[in-house]
Design goal:
Blueprint lengths: L1 E5 L3 H13 L3 E5 L2 H10 L4 E4 L11
Parallel strand pairs: 1-2, 1-3
């Protein structure tokens, strides 16, 4: 299963990605809304873990 983590806090982003990778998931990471939106539009993901308070583009728009 391929997941996308979109979280602007570097430590939390890393912790989530590490835990999910250790659990057997393939994880891509983004650190702002624009990057996350781009990845979500151009790559196939089974699920997205999305922070709603992101720089450049929030997680609700």
């Amino acid at each position: 299963m391929r997941l996308l983590v979109i979280e602007d806090d570097p430590d939390l982003n890393r912790q989530l990605a590490t835990a999910l990778t250790d659990a057997g998931y393939v994880v891509d990471r983004a650190f702002d809304g624009e990057e996350g939106h781009y990845l979500g539009e151009t790559e196939p993901y089974d699920a997205v873990i999305l922070d709603i308070g992101l720089p450049k583009m929030d997680g609700i728009s």
